[in-house]
Design goal:
Blueprint (H helix, E strand, L loop, with lengths): L3 H15 L4 E6 L12 H5 L4 E7 L2 E6 L2 E6 L5 E5 L9 E7 L3 E6 L6 E5 L23 H8 L6 H5 L10 H11 L12 H20 L40 E5 L2 E5 L6
Helix pairs in contact: 1-6, 3-6, 5-6
């Protein structure tokens, strides 16, 4: 599933091509995404100019005059910039065509993503209203994690993947951040001290920022706006490395299931 770095990579890639341009055509070939694409989306967007292209968690926000298009990449979705007359491939479900012959094409084989319109501030939308802080912004820190973890018995990995606690820390990056912080992923969230949470918060930001610089992590489906893969997978320390030696101590990396997700850790480096 595209996680925060992949979505941020997409945002940075498409924004220079579409910001400030007006919509001249909207083509929805398959409206049956996770939630149906609004039937009147083409009529709603016609002639509107897009301003800022933002991200909130794993959601892309295209701010138009009078409203916002909320987009999610689901498990296998991607946006690409292409020529408006480029023949669509299978699973190219929607095109936003802007003045200047710029087409933003949405591709989603599994159709778990979304394209939704809101005329209200998007922060009030039910999909975004209860989200936690952004991990790369100042309001996220170890004190925030320590405060919310108090009295909670859930595993710390599941805790930091909770979007109500902090947004965008998906499975890959939770594994990597916990390794760097030296914290066992199964440790109870409520039994970790403030100092360790301060370290963990910094490691979360470090891992996400590094992945953004590498263009995200490609394990299955993710590509950026130009169709190129991300390269952060080349420096993964524990994720998807079960049985391979730890890059720090040489102990074989282990894999267990936590919260129905594959969880990788070093039994010697993480306590």
């Amino acid at each position: 599933m595209p996680e925060l770095p992949e979505v941020e990579t997409t945002r940075r890639g498409i924004a220079p091509h579409i910001a400030g341009r007006r919509i001249v055509d909207v083509r929805v070939r398959e409206p049956r995404l996770r939630w149906p694409v609004p039937a009147d989306l083409a009529e709603t967007l016609a002639g509107r100019r897009v301003g800022d292209v933002r991200r909130r968690g794993k959601y892309l926000l295209l701010d138009f005059e009078g409203g916002t298009l909320i987009a999610h990449l689901g498990m296998s979705g991607s946006f690409r910039i292409c020529e408006p007359n480029l023949p669509p491939r299978k699973h190219d479900h929607a095109d936003l065509v802007f003045e200047g012959a710029v087409c933003l094409r949405y591709h989603d084989p599994r159709r778990f993503g979304c394209l939704l319109w809101t005329a209200d501030p998007p922060e009030r939308h039910p999909l975004l209203a209860e989200l936690g802080p952004e991990p790369l912004e100042g309001e996220f820190d170890g004190a925030h994690l320590h405060r919310l973890a108090a009295g909670r018995n859930t595993a710390v990995k599941s805790f930091i993947m909770d979007s109500h606690v902090v947004v965008g820390v998906g499975n890959i990056y939770a594994n990597e951040a916990l390794f760097l912080a030296g914290i066992h992923p199964g440790r109870s969230a409520g039994k970790i001290g403030l100092a360790r949470y301060r370290n963990l918060a910094g490691r979360i930001a470090e891992v996400l920022a590094a992945s953004i610089e590498q263009g995200g992590t490609t394990l299955r489906d993710f590509v950026n706006e130009s169709g190129a893969p991300g390269y952060f997978q080349q420096v993964l320390r524990v994720y998807d490395r079960a049985g391979q030696p730890c890059r720090v101590c040489g102990e074989p990396i282990r894999c267990v299931r936590l919260g129905q997700r594959a969880t990788y850790y070093c039994p010697r480096c993480q306590r």
